[in-house]
Amino acid sequence: MEFKLNKNLEILTPTGYRNFHGIRKLTKDVCFEIKFNNNKKLKCSETHVFISDNKEIKANELTVKSSIDGKNGESVIVTSIKKIQETIDLYDIVEVDNGNVFIVDDIVSHNCDFSTSGNQVVSVETLEYYKATFVVDPIEKRGAGGDFWIWERPDYSKNYIISADCARGDSSDYSAFQIFDVESMEQVGEYKGQITTKDYGNMLVAVATEYNNALLVVENNNIGWATLQQIIDRDYKNTFYSTPDLNIIDVEHSYTNKLSRQDKKLIAGFTTTNKNRPLIISNMESCFRDKSITIKSVRLYEELNVFIWHGAKAEAMRGYNDDLVMSLSIGLWIRDTALKLRNEQISYTKNMLSGIKKVTSVETRPGPQNKILASPEESWAMEVNGKKENLNWLL
User: Fold this and answer.
1) Within this chain, do residues 134 and 265 fall inside the same structural domain, yes or no?
2) pTM to 2 decimals?
3) pLDDT digit string (tens) for 92-135?
4) Can you give the CATH number for the domain in which 286 is found?
C-alpha cells in the first residue's frame, strides 16, 4: 500500500491521496491468493471487493482472465486464484474519504472485509457467532434478479411479521423487508432490491398475504407514504397503524368514523424519529447480544458488519447501505413494544373476564304480586297477576 506520511494519514486512491480512518487487523480461517498479469500477488478474504469496469466484484466471484481496474485507469488480468485453508492475518483500510476505494499494489481495491475497528453496533464476536451458527443459503430466490430470498415457506400454524424500509427505486438506496416468525423471531425471508414504490406496495401485500396475512409494518418516513398508499388502496387488513408515541396501536387495521377523537390520530405505518431511533438500534443490538433472534442472511450479516457508530449516531459506513439493518430493527422494535403491549391488553381482558362468575341462580325478594323465577333459562320470565309473562321483548 502507498501511504503519504504527513500530519494527516492519507492513502492513494484513483483520484489522488485521501484521508482515511485507520487500519484494522483481521484474522480469517480462509483466504484467497490472487495473482495478476502485472506480477503482483494479493491475499484477501473471500468477500474482499475489487473494482471491475467501475463495478464491484468480490474475490469469490473472480475467475481466471477476470479484468480488474488498476492504477492510472489501466486494467490488470487475473492469472490464478488459489483458496487457502489456513489462519491468516489480513489488514484493511477503514473509511477512505473517496468512497472506501484505494489502490493496493497498483490494483484498485475496496474496503470490504466486513469488519471494523471496534466501533460496530453489533460486536465482531457476536456477528462471527451468527455467521458460523445460522447464516445459510436460502432455499429459494424469487424475482427477476433473485432479490427475494426465502429460508422457510409459510407454516399456517405460525404468525409472521413483515417490516419494510422504503426507497424510491431509482437511486443508490434499496427497498428492503424482513419476514420473521413472531414467536421465535427466526428469519424466514428477506428482500433487498430496487423497485418502484407502487410495485413495492403490491409486492408487500402479496407476500404478507402469502405468509398468513402477516402483520405488515412499513416505515412511513418520506417516500414510505407512496408505498403505504398502495397498500391502503389494496385494503390490506393487517397493516400496522399507530400514533407516533405508540400509546395507541391497531395491528388489525382499522380506521373508521366510529373511532374516538384520540383514536383518529392513528396513522398508517411506523415513524422513525430522532427520539426513537437510538432506542430502536439499542433494542436491536440487545437482541443480538442476548442471542434472542436468528438471522440467516449473508446480506444482512454484511450490512451489520459495516453498521457503525459515527459519534452518537449509528449508521452504515460511507459507501454502504443499512436498509436491511433498519428494516430488521423496526421489526424487532414493533415486536418487543407494540405487540407486547397489545398482548398485555388481551391478557388483561381475559383475566378480567375470567374473574366474572356465571350467575346460576337469582336471589329474589318475596312479593305479593311480582316474583322473578329462579331458573336461569327462565330468567326473563315474570309472574304478573298470577300469570307467567316473558319479557324477552325488552332486549
Assistant:
1) yes
2) 0.60
3) 666 666 556 666 667 777 654 434 444 778 988 898 899 999 99
4) 3.30.420.240
